[in-house]
């Protein structure tokens, strides 16, 4: 922004007067021989110079005096070059605001997405893990197959289950774990299991560890004077239990729970043979994607899942999946059921192997029906 000099207007009349006097004297000298300068002219010239010096020495803040009219014979002062056009303060402010707005818009466009604090992610992960473990414990063996970070092979395999989470510690340190190789059972007159099953609706889910069917209410068993309600059933290949060293093609685990939360699991061993109608009903309702749950259009009668001979072995053990909770009553039917090669192939395509290795019996009491 160009600033004008306030002294220049005050000096202009004085300088013009001095130039007039000087120009007249010089013209006379050129026209004739030098003549002595009169005292009056000398005094006038000296006065003009003194006045010019006095005006130049005044501060810039002194108010400018109105200049006297110039003599008609004074020469015209040269015209100063035009100053650049001044940008008004308002126009400059508008330009700056527009530029700042453009810079902020460019920064916002390239700004990375805000990240949540690490403690928020950690809290969410811990909460999800706790819910998964709680669901497993509440629903019983198999219902918590979605517990994180475990599998049937590799770094998350059965040998590592006890190290994956503190809630899984019994998988490595428990003394009454399942499955076991059932040998040397004590033959006694065991009370028959009273099955109170009736047709009921069910949903099927492939939970990433097995195929599982979740049932509605109204199905139960009674054993040793205690009543347990059927919650769900699922499959393992090959069978987790062994009978005198023999392993079967598959096994279905029927998970029951009493009002106090205690678990009783009926194990139905399976060999290859004729087609099993209830297994086929489950296969017909398999979801297209893992973790999805589909509703069967027809009910299932769990009585048809059982073999005709319902004598059994019994012992106290644990869940065969994490968290491997102990205190589970196992009821392993002695007679295997049958399913076709095609039905075996369907499950094998999904889960070639999803069985926990045999655990030490550690001298546990095993009873079997006569």
UniProtKB/TrEMBL annotation:
* Top-level EC class as recorded in UniProt: lyase
EC number, as in UniProt: 4.2.1.1
Note the InterPro entries from the entry.
Alpha_CA_prokaryot-like, CA_dom, CA_dom_sf, Carbonic_anhydrase_a-class
- What domain of life does the native source organism fall in? Bacteria
Alpha-carbonic anhydrase domain: which residues? Answer: 148-370
What family is reported? Belongs to the alpha-carbonic anhydrase family.
Q: Sorted alphabetically, which Gene3D superfamilies does this protein's record hold?
A: Alpha carbonic anhydrase
Q: Which GO terms describe its molecular function?
A: carbonate dehydratase activity; zinc ion binding
The protein here is known as: carbonic anhydrase
Annotated region (Disordered), positions in chain: 51-90
Bias class Low complexity marks the residues at: 51-85
Signal peptide per UniProt? 1-27
Reaction(s) the record says it catalyses = hydrogencarbonate + H(+) = CO2 + H2O
Which PANTHER family does the entry mention?
CARBONIC ANHYDRASE
What keywords tag this UniProt record? Lyase, Metal-binding, Signal, Zinc
């Amino acid at each position: 922004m160009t600033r004008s000099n306030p002294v220049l207007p005050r000096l202009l009349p004085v300088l013009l007067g001095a130039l007039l006097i000087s120009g007249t004297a010089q013209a006379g000298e050129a026209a004739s021989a030098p003549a002595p300068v009169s005292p009056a002219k000398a005094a006038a010239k000296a006065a003009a110079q003194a006045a010019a010096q006095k005006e130049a020495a005044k501060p810039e803040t002194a108010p400018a005096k109105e200049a006297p009219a110039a003599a008609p014979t004074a020469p015209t002062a040269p015209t100063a070059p035009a100053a650049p056009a001044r940008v008004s303060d308002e126009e400059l402010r508008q330009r700056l605001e527009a530029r700042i707005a453009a810079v902020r818009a460019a920064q916002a466009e390239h700004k990375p997405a805000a990240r949540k604090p690490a403690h928020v992610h950690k809290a969410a992960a811990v909460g999800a893990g706790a819910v998964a473990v709680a669901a497993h414990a509440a629903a019983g063996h198999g219902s918590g197959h979605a517990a994180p970070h475990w599998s049937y092979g590799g770094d998350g395999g059965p040998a590592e289950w006890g190290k994956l989470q503190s809630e899984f510690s019994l998988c490595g340190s428990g003394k009454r774990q399942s499955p076991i190789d059932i040998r040397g059972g004590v033959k006694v007159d065991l009370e028959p299991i009273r099955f109170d099953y009736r047709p009921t609706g069910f949903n099927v889910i492939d939970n990433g560890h097995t195929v599982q069917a979740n049932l509605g209410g109204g199905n139960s068993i009674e054993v040793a004077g205690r009543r347990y309600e059927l919650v769900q059933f699922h499959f393992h290949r090959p069978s987790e239990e062994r009978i005198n060293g023999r392993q079967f093609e598959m096994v279905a685990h029927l998970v029951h729970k009493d009002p106090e939360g205690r678990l009783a699991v009926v194990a139905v061993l399976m060999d290859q043979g004729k087609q099993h109608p209830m297994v086929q009903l489950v296969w017909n309702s398999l979801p297209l994607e893992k973790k999805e749950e589909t509703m069967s259009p027809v009910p299932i009668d769990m009585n048809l899942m059982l073999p005709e001979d319902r004598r059994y072995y019994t012992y106290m053990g644990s869940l065969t999946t994490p968290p491997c909770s102990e205190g589970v009553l196992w009821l392993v039917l002695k007679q295997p059921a049958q399913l076709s090669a095609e039905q075996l192939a369907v499950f094998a395509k999904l889960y070639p192997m999803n069985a926990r290795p045999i655990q030490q019996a550690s001298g546990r009491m095993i009873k079997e029906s006569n």
